[in-house]
Description:
- The protein has 16 helices and no strands.
- The chain has helices spanning about 10-35, 35-45, 50-80, 80-100, 105-130, 140-165, 170-180, 185-190, 205-210, 215-240, 245-275, 280-290, 300-315, 320-330, 335-365, 370-385.
- It is globular.
- It is mostly helical.
- The model is unreliable at about 1-10 and about 390-400 (pLDDT under 50).
- It has a single domain (about 5-195, about 205-385), classed as Growth Hormone, Chain: A (Up-down Bundle).
Amino acid sequence: MSSDAAAMPSGRNAHERLLLVVSAAVLLDTLFYAVITPLLPQLTHELRLSKLSAGLLTAAYPAGMLAASLPGGALAVRRGPRFTVIAGLILLVVSTVGFGLLNSAGGLGIARFVEGIGGAFSWSGGLAWIVNATSPARRGAVMGRALGISIAGSLFGPAIGALASAIGRAGLFCALAAVASLLLIPIMGLSDVREASLSEQPVSAVVRVLRRPAIARSMWLMLLPAIISGLLNVLGPLRLHSLGAGARVIGATFLLSAALEAAITPAAGNFSDRHGRVLPLRAGLIGVAATIGCFTLPANQYVLALLLIVIAAVLGVFWAPAMALVSDAAEAHGIDQGHAAALMNLAWAAGQIVGSAGAGAAGKAFGDAVPVLATTVLALLTLAVVRGSRGTQAVPDGAG
């Protein structure tokens, strides 16, 4: 375990408090990321957005996260996780106010981009903070718990988006930004790691290991479900709307999806600690290949809503094992966990951009069936590769 762990609050209660506060920070980030889903049809109508433009607006957040992933990891490594989480939360507050007050596609896109930068900082600092305080043998379970809490933000995001579509964005988003700023108080109360010997590992060391097969494979297993998630975040609400669903049905669909995903994620992380990272990932690949290919088949809004909820449950199997696998592979190659968190952000953000912007562009040009078929093929090809993998270790050899 790194020297940062020595500076962590001692005792089980302190560890729980750290986990809770960090999870709350990323919960807020997830909440404001997910708020776009039920708002998308309304914004598409008001701003006269095409499917491509709607996809680009959705992709603005992961674009910001992609741009800030490696800088966020470097900040966590050099200035400490607490400083990085605070910076991310401040950017989140500012961007939320902007998203509430701006009324142009460009302005909303910039607000989402800044929010993505803040998200990269919050996730890099938060994940490095809790991973450094946790033994490798419990990494999946702890990541699963943190992710489960953060995904709960997706429960409230669609509901807030639906409310904003009814009463307006300005007052609601400014009030939420004020509430989010209150989280700075408990974060400031947690022990900092600045007193510890912080790593001076350069970003170039991370770039070099991207070519290592273990790193590349683990990142792909995060990138693929992110592609699928990004696709569904754009095509899901638009297709529901085309079948007659309003903001309430769309919001309820994604609320239930997030609830199921949040419940499954911690269990998947705990399972991966006991039985290895690859087994749940194989199950997830089988499930997603079987469900995503059916996306264009329902002709009824409620049948499609049910299918989206099932797909979300399948995606919940991926996140904790895949993130723990990235952390394990980074540790095995001597990469600081701050940089490992940056790799997770990089994979997730790239997948979200490809999924949302790519699905919007392909859906406009060729219809929804083309991006859906492409993701199904990717899942099947990945399953073929993973089935031949012998990666059954829960943690790297020699990890303690």
